[in-house]
């Protein structure tokens, strides 16, 4: 699924929006005359480790086309919490309740 948009002089698109999305794209004329600075904000929020190349395509209203490969890479996240279970006493059960959420659609090992 591609994400598409435009600014005054350019149209832009991503070939894969499952991992990246464009939040903002703007253009500014810079020196020397005839050069344009294109600024865009990409949002990358992976739920699991991933390494992939995504193509950002810019199309000028004057007819030029530029394709920028963007290499994205995320690593395994560090643990964000520790669960401590305290003993109730010798030969007594200790019980805690917790809810585990996964960002995947399929079951994953814990």
Task: Write a concise keyword list for the protein shown above.
mainly beta; 6 strands; rod-shaped; 110 residues; four-stranded antiparallel sheet; single chain; two-stranded antiparallel sheet
Explain what this protein looks like in three dimensions:
The structure is a single chain. By secondary structure, this protein is an all-beta fold. It contains no helices and 6 strands. The chain has strands at residues 3-6, 10-14, 20-30, 35-44, 50-60, 65-74. Strands 1-2-5-6 form a 4-stranded antiparallel beta sheet, with no helix packed on it. Strand 3 (20-30) and strand 4 (35-44) form a beta hairpin. The mean pLDDT is 80.
How do the strands and helices of this protein lay out in sequence?
Elements: E1 3-6, E2 10-14, E3 20-30, E4 35-44, E5 50-60, E6 65-74
